[in-house]
Amino acid sequence: MVQCAHRPGEADDETVICAEGYLFEFERRGYLQAGGYVPEVVIEHPELVEGLHREFVHAGSDVVLAFTYYAHREKMRLIGREEDLEKINRTALRLARKVADDTGTLMAGNICNLNIYDQADPSWEGRAHAMFKEQLEWIMEEGGCDFIVAETFFAFAEAKLALECVRKYAKGIPVVVSFNLKRGDDLIDGVLIQDALRRLAEAGADVVGLNCGRGPATTLPVLEEARRNGIKTPLSFVPVAYRTDDENPNMITLKDVDDKGKIAFPSDLDPWLCSRSQIASYTRKAHALGVRFMGICCGNASHFTRAMAEALGRQPPASRYTADMTKHAYYGTDPTLIDFNTQEDDETIICAEGYLFEFERRGFLKAGGFVPEVVIEHPELVEGLHREFVHAGSDVVLAFTYYAHREKMRIIGREADLEKINRTALRLARKVADDTGTLMAGNICNLNIYDQADPSWEGRAHGMFKEQLEWIMEEGGCDFILAETFFAYAEAKLALECVRKYAKGIPVVVSFNLKRGDDLIDGVLIQDALRRLAEAGADVVGLNCGRGPATTLPVLEEAKQNGIKTPLAFVPVPYRTDDENPNFMTLKDVNDNGKIAFPLDLDPWLCSRSQIASYTRKAHALGVRFMGICCGNASHFTRAMAEALGRQPPASRYTADMSKHAYYGTDPTLIDFNTQEVCKNKF
Fold first, then answer.
1. How far apart are CA 124 and CA 120, in angstroms?
2. Were 64 and a residue from 100, 332, 443, 680 both cysteine, which residue would form a disulfide, CB within 3.0 to 4.6 Å?
3. Best CA proximity match to 582, nearest among 652, 526, 666
4. Which residues on neighbouring strands pair with residue 255, listed in sequence order?
């Protein structure tokens, strides 16, 4: 572990990982507005900020970075909250200090670009000096920090001024100074990036480099050139998590994957995300170059920070949950696995799913086994994600008992915790549903023991469904039960029969995970399976998981054409599956077509929010009235679905307002030098 006494990047064999990206992550979670990008969440939900600090440390960050990025006077003025300026800064500093002290990590202060640099108006410098001064004085009054990150500067003049202010108002504190480089080799004041890095190093910056804007592929070459030019000062490598390239070196000009005439920034960037393998690869390349200060900026999430830490040979706490694919029901090699597997017409229910993948990304669940141990290890996090999904627009709190069945608990050696994990999950879901006035659903799922060659599977499956359903009823029941992700018609039919027997009177949604083709693994055609379940009395039938929106919706369209009157369920994964790979489990790694991307390198295949919204409207037009997103879901996708239906969930308070954006904005009080004309020419 890095010692607090060290300056960032000081020791040749030590690398400081500093997790960033708070703005984008809180926007995705539904607590921050794109456009203005002001960290109001610091004073509105300080417990969430503290939680994300802890999550990043859990994932491998050596630093707790005070969330004061864009908490400066110009940004607060733009949204009409200047009176909260000091409060937001002091609160952020105290939260960071608390978590750093609790976890034994470094604590960093943060100042950033002010978006007031203007070549035509020299008065910008005096105003900028005052803004840096007040933020730095608050840092020192709150007990100082281990170092300061001064970042995302588009102009050398502003970066130089920031460095001078740190030296004057935060004496003795080391400082990392970094640029956001748009298109080309020069900053917006005409200074070449290599000259800017050299001049900052000569002026006494402890670390210099790049952050934000550029992805790993277009950031690293700039640092390689700096090394060739003889810069000895430690370098900072903090790219965004997106796949920028020579045509679009900065994320701000990446194009929408469906409409090349439309800019993807900020809400439709998900399809451009790097994979974890790419993050790990660039981390190793940066380390080999001698970079000793690194992190991920906008687009970061815990799984990327962990990928970076593990690429350096570390084992942060989250590494306990590093994938063990030997336990996976279909790709697994464990010899005990089953071989056969290696409402009203105008009302729509949104049921947010995807807990397994989201907790794996956040570093509290292991890929492979995919067992929700987090329910009993960190119940407060499960309650928090329930609330986050409701905040984003989910009508349902789904008890997190997916894969909390006897077979899964056996495979990881925790059968003794089976009842505890189920009852705890049910109580957490009931608590949040009651608090928020939403529906509460129980959950049973595929058991991965179906075996055509061994009829005894049915008796064992009956026993497993029975015990989970009895726990649901003993814990007070639920509004409905979700029985899902069945690969075999026989298992889905058995699940329905068990619900009718052990949870009498409770409505049930039954859905399939369809692999390739039109038939399930027991040979029953999917259309026949949907029809037969409907005839057997399922309240809703459909598809969930496995397939993305593009390969799920046609199956439901055919069901409608076949005359099924029972309500349909549309709960795809948020990945861009297609006819060649209709199920996300066979999508290929973007760097290596011979390698399967599932489960850790699927990020580059994510849908955009616009795509989720478009398919939501198509499903609704088809008459689908039960929908959600399964594995890969996150709050911003649930919100996209809700808003596509014309709803305004609590998270819609933070729906993007690009009029306030420093470069794409139209607010007349923005500095002209920064807005659209410059953006077109320089990004």
1. 9
2. 100
3. 526
4. 263
User: Taken in order 327, 329, 330, 335, is the CA torsion positive or negative?
Assistant: positive
Can you read off the two tokens belonging to residue 131?
């803004």
478 is in an annotated binding site: no
Q: Which two tokens stand for residue 60?
A: 């491998």
pLDDT tens figures, 442-471: 999 999 999 989 999 999 999 999 999 999
User: What is the phi/psi pair of residue 26, to 5°?
Assistant: -70, -30
Q: What share of the chain is helix, strand, coil (3-state, %, to 5)?
A: 45, 15, 40
Domains of the chain in sequence order: 16-321 (3.20.20.330), 343-645 (3.20.20.330)
User: Which residues face 148 on adjacent strands?
Assistant: 109, 175
Q: Is the dihedral of CA 522, 525, 526, 529 positive or negative?
A: negative
Whether the CB-CB separation of 527 and 518 falls below 8 Å is answered with yes
For helices 418-436 and 457-474, angle between their N-to-C axes, nearest 10 degrees: 40
Token pair recorded at residue 583: 């199920």
Query: Identity (one letter) of the amino acid at 487?
Result: F
pTM (two decimals): 0.90
Query: What is the C-alpha to C-alpha distance for residues 388 and 364, in angstroms, rounded to an integer?
Result: 17
Q: CA-CA distances (angstroms) from residue 75 to 80, 124, 210, 508?
A: 9, 15, 22, 49
C-alpha span between 356 and 516 (Å, rounded) = 23
Q: Is 442 helix (H, G, I), strand (E, B) or coil?
A: strand
10-residue stretch averages of pLDDT, the chain, 683 residues long: 38 80 97 94 97 98 98 94 97 98 98 93 95 98 97 97 98 97 92 97 97 97 96 97 96 92 94 96 96 97 97 94 78 64 65 98 94 97 98 98 96 96 98 97 96 93 98 96 97 98 96 94 97 96 98 98 95 97 96 90 97 97 96 98 96 91 84 61 60
Q: Give 488-499 as a DSSP string.
A: SHHHHHHHHHHH
| Dist CA 633 CA 627 (whole Å) | 12
Q: Is the peptide bond between 379 and the residue preceding it cis, with omega within 30 degrees of 0? A: no
Distance, in Å, from the CA atom of 596 to the CA atom of 589, rounded to the nearest integer, reads 6
pLDDT at 324: 83
How many CA atoms lie within 13 Å of 545's alpha carbon, on the beta-carbon side? Answer: 21
Q: What is the pLDDT of residue 196?
A: 98
> What local confidence, expressed as pLDDT, does residue 683 receive?
64
Is 297 annotated to bind a ligand? Reply is yes
Region of residue 2 (phi > 0: left; psi between -120 and 50: alpha; otherwise: beta): beta
The DSSP 8-state label assigned to residue 623 in this structure reads T
Residues 6+ apart with CB under 8 A from 384: 48, 51
Give me the residue label for tokens 């670009």: 113
Q: How far apart are CA 607 and CA 270, in angstroms?
A: 6
In this structure, are residues 648 and 636 in contact, taking their beta carbons and an 8 Å threshold? no
218 Cβ neighbours under 8 A, 6+ residues apart:
239, 244, 245, 246, 249, 250
Cβ neighbours of 374 (radius 10 Å): 25
Query: What letter would DSSP give residue 180?
Result: -
Q: Where are the alpha helices (DSSP H) in 207-275?
A: 216-228
Residue 567 C-alpha from the chain's centroid:
31
Please tell me whether 631 is known to bind a ligand. Answer: yes
Phi, psi of 104 (to 5 degrees): 70, 30
Helix ranges (H only) for 69-109 are 73-78, 85-103
Residue 298 marked in a binding site: yes
What whole-number distance in Å separates Cα of residue 339 and Cα of residue 360? 26
Going by C-alpha positions, the residue among 455, 216, 246 that lies closest to residue 340 is 455
pLDDT score of 330: 66
Q: Which residues contact 321 (CB under 8 A, 6 or more apart)?
A: 360, 363, 364, 365, 366, 367
For residue 10, the model assigns a pLDDT of 43
Was 274 annotated as part of a binding site? no
Any idea what DSSP says for residue 628?
Answer: -
